[in-house]
Specification:
The protein is mainly beta. The chain contains 1 helix and 10 strands; from the N terminus they run ββββαββββββ. The longest helix is centred in the middle third of the chain and has 8 residues.
């Protein structure tokens, strides 16, 4: 099994082995132009690569069966994440967007080598998704 966190900031050169799908994206998704998108067939992780094939962003879907980095676990609430990481560098409250609907609160923790964005489910406020990105692509 791939440890996708190890790929952040490095060229992704793995050959397709049936565990992931590689697609080409020719547009700007708000965080820069990506030429490749890599996604696990089981849907638990995705990666965006720049034009040189370097992994810039990793998305991890929280699932009770999945292994999460940084000591995070499915079922964690914001207070649990705060206890692990301390005060966030940025954060947002639960919101309702006309196009996107209701989405939960989030926190971002900026570190020297990466930014860690933690998103929670609306209503339950339990861990939903973890996004790890290079500092230079963090919004």
């Amino acid at each position: 099994m791939l440890n996708v966190i190890d790929f952040l900031g490095k060229a992704f050169t793995a050959e397709e082995d049936g565990s992931f799908i590689r697609t080409t994206i020719e547009g700007d998704e708000g965080h820069g132009l990506y030429s490749h998108h890599i996604e696990a067939r089981n849907g638990l992780w995705q990666m965006n690569l720049d034009g040189n094939g370097v992994v810039q962003t990793i998305f991890l879907q929280v699932d009770p069966k999945s292994s999460l980095p940084f000591g995070l676990e499915a079922g964690m609430a914001p207070r649990d994440v705060l206890a692990r990481f301390g005060i966030p560098d940025k954060k947002g409250d639960e919101q309702v967007n006309k196009l996107l609907g209701k989405y939960g609160p989030w926190m971002r923790f900026d570190r020297e080598a990466m930014s860690i964005h933690v998103e929670f489910h609306a209503d339950s406020h339990l861990l939903k998704q973890i996004t790890i990105m290079l500092p230079e692509v963090a919004p």
